[in-house]
Amino acid sequence: MPRVVIDAEICKGCVLCVEFCPRDALEMSDATNSRGHHPAVLRDDEKCTGCAVCALVCPGVCIEVYR
Amino acid sequence: MPRVVIDAEICKGCVLCVEFCPRDALEMSDATNSRGHHPAVLRDDEKCTGCAVCALVCPGVCIEVYR
Amino acid sequence: MSETADTRKSVFISGNEATAEGGIAGGCRHFFGYPITPQNEIPEYMSEHLPEIGGVYLQAESEVAAINMVYGAAAAGARVMTTSSSPGIALMQEGLSYMLGSELPAVFVNMVRGGPGLGNIAAAQSDYWLATRGAGHGDGRCITLTPYSVQELHDFTAGAFEIADRYQNIVMVLADAILATMMEPCELIPRRDLPLPDRPYAVGPHDRSERERNIINSLWIDFDVMEAVNLRIEERYTRAGEEITDWEEFGSDDPQIMLCAYGISARICESVVMRADEAGVRLRLIRPRTVFPFPTEPIRRWAERVDATLVVELSMGQFVEDVRLAVEGSCPVELLARSGGNMPTPGDVLQKVREVARHVGVAAK
Amino acid sequence: MSETADTRKSVFISGNEATAEGGIAGGCRHFFGYPITPQNEIPEYMSEHLPEIGGVYLQAESEVAAINMVYGAAAAGARVMTTSSSPGIALMQEGLSYMLGSELPAVFVNMVRGGPGLGNIAAAQSDYWLATRGAGHGDGRCITLTPYSVQELHDFTAGAFEIADRYQNIVMVLADAILATMMEPCELIPRRDLPLPDRPYAVGPHDRSERERNIINSLWIDFDVMEAVNLRIEERYTRAGEEITDWEEFGSDDPQIMLCAYGISARICESVVMRADEAGVRLRLIRPRTVFPFPTEPIRRWAERVDATLVVELSMGQFVEDVRLAVEGSCPVELLARSGGNMPTPGDVLQKVREVARHVGVAAK
Amino acid sequence: MREELFMAGIGGQGVNLAGQFIGRAGMDAGLNVSWVPIYSPEVRGGSSTCTIVLTDRRVASPTSEHPTSMVLMDPTAARRFAANLTTGGLLVINSSLIEETPKVDDCRLLKVPANDIAAEIGNDRTVNMALIGAWAAGTEVLTAEDVARSLREMLPERHHVHMPDNERALERGAEIARETR
Amino acid sequence: MREELFMAGIGGQGVNLAGQFIGRAGMDAGLNVSWVPIYSPEVRGGSSTCTIVLTDRRVASPTSEHPTSMVLMDPTAARRFAANLTTGGLLVINSSLIEETPKVDDCRLLKVPANDIAAEIGNDRTVNMALIGAWAAGTEVLTAEDVARSLREMLPERHHVHMPDNERALERGAEIARETR
Amino acid sequence: MAEEKLINRYPDALTDVEMRYCPGCTHGTAHRLVAEVIDELGVRDRTVTIATVGCSVFAYEYFDTDAVQAAHGRGPAVATGIKRVHPDSVVFTYQGDGDLASIGMGEIVHAAARGENFTVIFINNAVFGMTQGQMAPTTLMGQKTTTSPRGRTAEEAGWPIRVCELLDTLEGPAFIAREALSTPQRIRSAKRSIKRAFETQLAGRGFSLVELLSSCWTWWDMEPVEAIYHIENTMTEHFPLRIFRDCLTGQSEEVDSNA
Amino acid sequence: MAEEKLINRYPDALTDVEMRYCPGCTHGTAHRLVAEVIDELGVRDRTVTIATVGCSVFAYEYFDTDAVQAAHGRGPAVATGIKRVHPDSVVFTYQGDGDLASIGMGEIVHAAARGENFTVIFINNAVFGMTQGQMAPTTLMGQKTTTSPRGRTAEEAGWPIRVCELLDTLEGPAFIAREALSTPQRIRSAKRSIKRAFETQLAGRGFSLVELLSSCWTWWDMEPVEAIYHIENTMTEHFPLRIFRDCLTGQSEEVDSNA
Ligand SMILES: Cc1ncc(C[n+]2csc(CCOP(=O)(O)OP(=O)(O)O)c2C)c(N)n1
Ligand SMILES: Cc1ncc(C[n+]2csc(CCOP(=O)(O)OP(=O)(O)O)c2C)c(N)n1
Ligand code: SF4
Ligand code: SF4
Ligand code: SF4
Ligand code: SF4
Predict the structure, then answer these.
(1) Which fold does the domain A3-66 belong to in CATH?
(2) H56 touches ligand 2 (CB under 6 Å)
(3) Considering the entire predicted model, what is its pTM?
(4) Using omega within 30 degrees of 0 as the cis cutoff, is the peptide bond preceding D116 cis?
(5) Looking at domain C5-243, what is its CATH homologous superfamily?
(6) The complex's ipTM?
(7) Ligand 5 center to residue D214 CA distance, Å?
(8) CA H112 to CA C146: how far, in whole Å?
């Protein structure tokens, strides 16, 4: 099953991945990382197809996609 | 009758007026002016139509044409 | 955050904004500049305010263009200024030289940052030579004012236009990143419509029956004419030395050690003078408010009475040369130099005072 | 008109050509420059010769571009130079500062002309501060060599590359329009393929297993790091002061008046020393061949033995400050300053020598 | 009298603005004042610090080696700066974020749970207010009212809707200071 | 021994080149020499002057206040410069163009009809040669042959066809000098 | 279950230094794309990055290559110097619109005219980001910036410059393209052009430049996502996306956003 | 006999200082045309001439108007400063190709992009005349100059820049034309464009520029007349004559050489 790993410490919470995920599989977490940002997280394992669009648009270079 | 007055002291002898005179009415003088240039002179009064092409091409701004 | 009013009024304002408003109060209606930290608030302030009062703000494509626009505007008779920080001022050197050669007045502000190169955006005083010895090639120099507070930034900038006009020369206001960004109370000089001084040399539409054509130029093929320009400029500098040399003194009337510092360093030294008893040494601070012309005479006078002089500067030894030239061997001159954004604390200076005292045999705690 | 040969050989050659050939002899294989009178023969010579020996001549679009090309080439490890005259050098000030901040070696030549502004194309020495105090913003300075003959132009330019490498600093060869255009006999240093010194800092294709990546940079946000750069640079200057300070002395061993002059002025003063008996005053000329580092020590030494010092310069009083800083009050220092292309004749200087002698009570004819 | 207040936090916590309010309040109270920021190069994030001097003599040096009081708003600031406090100085920390109270001998410590207070008030922007309220009451150089007044003067009209929240936060901070005494 | 030769004329007369030949010849003769031009800003036309120093000591100043000899090639140069000649110096003038001989007391005057000589030889470019031939024979610092030799060295191969003309002009000038003595 | 595979390796050509851009700033995206291209072409150890002055000034910390930090606007001159010393190096400048199109106009035009064989990554975000959002030569008409507080007007400040079109009048450039860092498709297209540009350089064909329409939401006063749509919907109107010149294919074509 | 009339009055806008150009140098022709236009428009006393650095540096002595001598390449910045102070003045810069297209590229592009309301007379003679004939950005391929002694090659120095085409990509310019100072017809056409450019300025329409292909026979190593034919036959090949833009007519057209 495809898997998305978001580095929550590096993520700056810009929301771009959430916006552009074609399957609406991501969301912003309520938690704050040590820099004060709310990182993105995978909302729904099922939806993710591992298309890596999130990684493509992520300016933080903090998403790894496994398939 | 048309008349061309060339200021022989200012003329730098570049030959442009002679070259472009449509009636071949000008020529370069053998005399030297005080700067060491051979000035242009009217060769042939008869030929000049007062078209002022000589003045148009003269970079020295030293030709007056009367008509 | 500025407030404009008919009467002088204290506002709590940053050095950058006080400088911009000082320019306006001094009659500046034309500003050409290129952004650079730590003085961005000045062009921003000008872009906001100048158009409102019929002035012109234009963002130049570079500092090189900016100085040449200033040159054009000054040639056209305007009261004009630009502001920048170290690398930007370095880029203006050719243009400054043209303005000096053409004997045009204008006001420049340099909010010095750490260098060389891109350096950093912290406070430094390492453009001292660039200001006092610079102005590009040739013998021209910038009349250089060294404010040490937000109030002085405002006042000196406003006053600089008069000086520039009087000597038909560039006036450089030399400050630093801290003065630029700090906030302090400042009494603002009210804005008013200042009549432009007569500028018989300026170019622009005119009536030939009233004056001959004007030419602004710095090209003089004839050696004697060129030399005459230099002598005329030199003569103005001599006159400026007599008329506008400015400094402040603070501390003991019977000092053992003279402190010399300008700008932000002088504020540290003020603190030191206020704590002089901690070192048990009598101190007097001489703080130049102009560094070109330089207050040679008071420094020389005190140098003959003290046991030593300590210079504090945020550069590796630039200002100290002018002090040495003034002291001319009358007493030892030592230097406390920091750079790169680092500043000595008053404690550091006191420490150095003790050291100097030891070197010259003054009894210190 | 140059002749290249395996052995040193005297040729009759202009200062500009000798400078260009000096660069080549010093190992320069990359030249970036922008034409400006009175040194056009240098880029012309380079455009003719460098491609023939596998080097690169590139005419930059401006002096600003030229200095930044030099910066790039120096970052890439090349022996590189550029040459210009006053306004062009003024335009390079920001770039010079970057090079100093990045601690890159390169050689610059300034054939000084009259200023300020467009000025004229005659000989002047009014870029003394630009050379010794300039290099843009920040505390960096150019090591400055002052040749006084075509031979020295050649030799100093050739030698400048070694010095630049040794101190990882810019070396400026400071001359003037006369030295640039005059012809004299000159022994040319033979061209050879000089091995480049090791440049572990240089960027370019590499093998990561052999070295880490290299970064050329002058941006140091951290105050301490930035200050460390300045201290490192300062330390090199101190070392240069000990190692390469250079000057020549000429004249009486028991002088009454010391003459100080460099470059073309020093040649006039040589004539004066040769005619010293006309004035009936014993003269000694101290002629710095480096002005940064400055020969403070010999000047100071003689200052303590003479009755007065006379400085001759083709500027309004720049070089004289360094002399004053060296003399530090040990004897009166007077100045003969000409500018704008004008030069004092030996007769003028002799006249001034008499005047100085009178001021200080030396019996002169 | 010379108070040297040092404030530090991370971008977005309003460190500089709070410092400016204090500076302005000091000026209005007839003191000589200065406010000096030190920015870090990043546009956003990074640490943010400023120094305010309030004195009845010359301000002279506007920076401070050993501040007489400090307001520290995040753990990094607490770790980096607390030790610089002058002996016997006032240390105000944002205890909502700073879990590990910095060890500073011989100081007056005020722990202000500023984020919690702001949350209570329901206005994220008041974190800095609670802290400077505590500072004001702690030093007694200015009153919380002085600060509130300068706030009103300096804030653009459109932000005045936040004044009640700001005042409540200031007051809560001041209360904590008074309680701690 | 120190000879300071000043030469002046208008652009195109070959003033500078002639000066360089003398300089080079001096060098080859084992003297210390220098050649200094002063250009006027115009690309063409305008006056052209240079100073050559030939000496067995240091050259030192390469310019001259009162030259020991002068070669003046046109009326303007004659008017402007002749008076600077040192007392007893050698004055060589191009009498083809300079109608009014400059009044210089106590000098050795050589009138060389250089343009006429060049016209005789049939080579316009030899005007300068006749003059420096006269100068050489007049001063005896160098011989006309010295100058001819330096010419051969300095001129590019393709100009060597002119050498006979040049040598004739040099010799004619020298003759006039010898006759005048 | 098949073995799990990482499909987007963190580029070798990026260091692990965390980039200090604002959240959502497309400088980060641009860095990643360039680094991926360097990886794919296998040229990391002959690459020299020219960091210029702007928010990307620290590019020398982010790209794991040799690097030179150039003065504001002078990247192309510095690149020229390096490339003339090491023709076998792979050199790219990374320049903002302030850097390239304002102060650096002379240098970029001349490097392009000379056909210098290096690559320019040109980040057009229509403002000066680093110095707090002043007007740039690419600022759109009417756009508010900190130095055009009432919006850019032609009277005060003229019209925005289209750099690709300007350089396309020269004979020196071998590859010129304008792309946008907006939607996923655009980002893919941008990467293709970046690769093409580096390939042009590797083929020794001369100057190559890729303009990337980018976001600076911080100074545009927008949310990061909103800014992406601003690029897509507003910026592309004034700055049409296009491959202006490709010496390798001889083509000039509109960028196909759905490719 | 009818009364004799002088049909080509010496322009009022020229002083009687003799111009120090080489014999046959078309700088003189350009000066005369500009002066005639100033006369015809009756604007001499509000005109400010910006002399730049090149053989025409003494333009301030030749034009009988107010004048400012600008640093090399910076004429457009200086003109901007003046025009922003005196919008009612008539300002023109007179710039060579070294001045305008080499060191001054940044300033000309930006003045044009801003649509600054002044006129540029751009003398393109394909070399740096004043400094003794070095290569210019407009030097033709293969052309020998003192710094391209073996002829200009693309490898060493790239390709010549076409300034009009470059500026024609901007929105700021209101009038752009390239003319040639070669044959009498061309000179007449050049004058029409110069007049048009000044009229554009007088109408407040913004930036206007006339490029004049000119001779520098001295450094081309030709006779003056030969150089004129070189302009006509060779230069115009690389630099096509054209009115690129005329805001007053809305037209863009080839220059009709027989008009
Ligand atoms: C000579 C000089 N002038 C000005 C500056 C200040 N400065 C730094 S970055 C910058 C503009 C950056 O804008 P841009 O190139 O668009 O990059 P961005 O920050 O938007 O990515 C300026 C003007 C400088 N560092 N050096
Ligand atoms: C800053 C600076 N750099 C270089 C020069 C030298 N310089 C004077 S004129 C010129 C080029 C002139 O060429 P162009 O503009 O084409 O005019 P032309 O002489 O051909 O008419 C140069 C490089 C200078 N005066 N100032
Ligand atoms: S795009 Fe990247 S930085 Fe932005 S929220 Fe998603 S993971 Fe975080
Ligand atoms: S065109 Fe003019 S300068 Fe040339 S020869 Fe004819 S009159 Fe003389
Ligand atoms: S200021 Fe703009 S360009 Fe700079 S990092 Fe932030 S969003 Fe990016
Ligand atoms: S050098 Fe060329 S441009 Fe200059 S005046 Fe002579 S012909 Fe004209």
Answers:
(1) Alpha-Beta Plaits (3.30.70)
(2) yes
(3) 0.96
(4) yes
(5) Thiamin diphosphate (ThDP)-binding fold, Pyr/PP domains (3.40.50.970)
(6) 0.96
(7) 27
(8) 38
